[in-house]
Amino acid sequence: MSTTKLPNYNNSCRAVYNLTVHLVFVTKYRRKVFSEIMICRLSEVFSSVAQKWDSKIIEFNGESDHVHLLLSYPPHKLLSNKIANLKATASKTLWREFESELAKIYRKRVLWTGSYFVASCGGVTIEQLKIYVQNQDCPDSSHH
After folding, report:
1. DSSP string, the chain
2. How far apart are CA 107 and CA 104, in angstroms?
3. Which domains, and CATH codes, for the chain?
4. Rounded to whole angstroms, how far apart are CA atoms 7 and 18?
5. Which residue from 32, 30, 56, 26 is spatially nearest to 43, judged by alpha carbons?
6. Whole-structure pTM over 0.70, yes or no?
7. Distance separating the N- and C-terminal Cα atoms of the chain
8. Residues 96-133: pLDDT tens digits?
9. How far apart are CA 144 and CA 142, in angstroms?
């Protein structure tokens, strides 16, 4: 499979891919929890977890009650497992490092809502894909 016509693709032993999603994680009860230093720490934690999953945080930002991540990941890793691991590791880390601040807001050791937002993004447009597919070498039917 040639990827010369579509830049920014990754390779694994069985796939050529460019999978990127926009994730939003919201704090439990939409409480305004995060300080600037917590947002910085979350960025480090998410990057570290992503790396362990052969993934990469392309972009990260957050406000006091939610965070946005652009995550690039390989197809052989289940996205829902990655998301669960990102949220769990971030929660454990923040509770370990900022317990006094979080305990003022939450009685239990919670951080995130049970849900999340995810949307596919990045890559190429449908028009670019159509052109790529149309330009593939087609077997010549006269040789059959």
Report:
1. ---TTS-S-EE-SS-EE-EEEEEEEEBGGG-----HHHHHHHHHHHHHHHHHTT-EEEEEEEETTEEEEEEEE-TTS-HHHHHHHHHHHHHHHHHHHSHHHHHTT-SSS--B-S--EEEEE-S--HHHHHHHHHTSPPPPGGG-
2. 8
3. 10-124 (3.30.70.1290)
4. 9
5. 56
6. yes
7. 23
8. 999 999 999 999 999 999 999 999 986 666 677 677 66
9. 6
